[in-house]
Amino acid sequence: MMSFFDPLPSLGKPRVWDVGALCRAIADSLEARFNPVTVRGEITGFSRAGSGHCYFSIKDAGGQLRCAMFRRAAVAMDFTPRDGELVEVRGKLGVYEQRGDLQLIVESLQRAGQGALFEQFLRVKAQLESEGLFDAARKRPLPVMPRGIGVVTSLGAAALHDVVTALRRRVPHIPVLIAPSLVQGGDAPASIAQALQQLYDVAARKGAPGVPVIDVILLVRGGGSMEDLWAFNDERVARAIVQSPVPLISGVGHETDFTIADFCADLRAPTPTAAAELVAQPRQAWLDGLDAMQARIQDALLRQVDRQAQRLDAAAHRLGRPSQQMAQQRLHLSQTQQRARHGLLMKMQRQTQAYQALEADLVKKTQRRLQQHGQGLQQLQVRVELLNPQRVLERGYSVLTTQSGQVITSAKQAPVGTPLKAVLADGSLDVSVTQPKLL
Q1: Could you give the CA distance from residue 104 to residue 94 in angstroms, rounded to a whole number?
Q2: Collapsing DSSP states into helix, strand and coil, what is residue 236?
Q3: Which pLDDT score, from 0 to 100, does residue 246 have?
Q4: Which residues of the chain have pLDDT under 50?
Q5: What is the pLDDT of residue 149?
Q6: Which of 217, 305, 414, 435 meets the CB 3.0–4.6 Å disulfide criterion with 150?
Q7: What are the angstrom distances between the C-alpha of 190 and each of 185, 187, 235?
Q8: Rounded alpha-carbon distances, angstroms, from residue 53 to 70, 71, 224, 363
Q9: For position 3, what pLDDT does the model report?
Q10: Is the separation of the CB atoms in 93 and 31 below 8 Å?
C-alpha cells in the first residue's frame, strides 16, 4: 500500500481522502520516520488541567510546537515548569486528529537551562531589587473605604469587564476612573507608564473642584504566556509604579503568574477580579455595620438618659424645698456655733481649776502616793506568797485534774469510773472515781 510520503504516487486520478484517514496516515508517517524524538526549546503557555495532564508549547527563533504531557508522565517531574524556561522534551510526534494539529506527546521533560526571556526577567528583577524598588518598607496599606478608584488596562480586555463588574456589584457608589492603555506588545510599556501618570496627575490634585478623588489604583490584565505579559516586566513600568502617590495593586495574569510589576506594587492580587475585591468592601456590609453602630449608640443613649433621670429624681427627693432646707441648715449652724463656744469656755474653766488644784497639792499627793505604793507593795508580796500553789500543796492540799490536765472544780465533772490525777507537793497520783457525793 502506498504511504502518504511515497515519492512515486499513482499517475492516475488523485485519491480522495477522508479527513480522519488523512490525519491517521500523517500520524503513521511521523511515527515511522521521526519517533522517538528529543526537542530543545523554551516553554510557553504552560498549564496543568484538573486531570493532571499538562499542556504547553516549546519554541525557538525558528518555530513553535504544541506539546501534551499526560498525568502518568507529569507525576515523574521533579520541578514545576514555568514559561520562559529552556527544556529538553522527549516524546513522540503525532497528530491531534480532532483539530488536525501537529503535537508532541511528551514522555519526559527536564531543564536544559533558562530561556533567554526568563534570563532577562531575572536580570531586570535583580537590578530593580538592588535599587530598593521591592522593599517592604515602602509598601502602603490599602484604604479601608476609598473615595475613588483608578484603573489602568485595555478597554477591550476581559480584565476590565471583570473589574468593573466586581466594583459595580460591591461598591456601586464609588466612582471609577479608567486610564486606557495597551497591555501587550512593544508599545505597551510606554502606554502603561503614560496611563499611570495620567492617574497620578489626577490623584495629586486631591479632589480639586471638578476633579475626581483617587485613593487607590488598579493595574490589571488577564492571563497569558510570558511573552503576552512581558510589558509588565519592563523597567519603565516598574519605575512608574513606584512613583504612585497612592497605594497601587497589581492584578496581572492568573494566580500562578508573577511579573516585576507585582513586586513593585504595594500589593499583588492573584487575578484582576481579586484586585477589585481587595478595595471594594461590599456596600451592604458597610450599611449593616452602620445599622449595628446606630443600634448600639441608640441603646447606650437610652440607658444614659434613664440613669440621669434616676439621679435627678433622687436628688430632687433629697433636696425638697430649697428655702426650707437652707433655713434648717442656718438654724443648725447657729446652734452648733453656740454649743461649741459654751463648751470651749467651760472646758477652759475646768482645766484652769484642775491645774490650780494640782499645783497646790502636788508634793503632798506625791509623798502620800509613794507611801501608799510602798505599803501596797509589801502587802502584795505577802499575798503572793500566800497564794503560791506550792505552799498550799505543802499544807496537805492537792489539785484534782483529768488525765488531760483540766482542773476538777465540781463533783459533777467526774462520774463514776472517771480516771483522774491528784497533784501533790512532791508528785502526782492517778486515781479513779468510785462513789461521787454531792453536797
Answers
A1: 6
A2: helix
A3: 95
A4: 1-11
A5: 94
A6: 217
A7: 10, 6, 10
A8: 4, 5, 19, 125
A9: 36
A10: yes
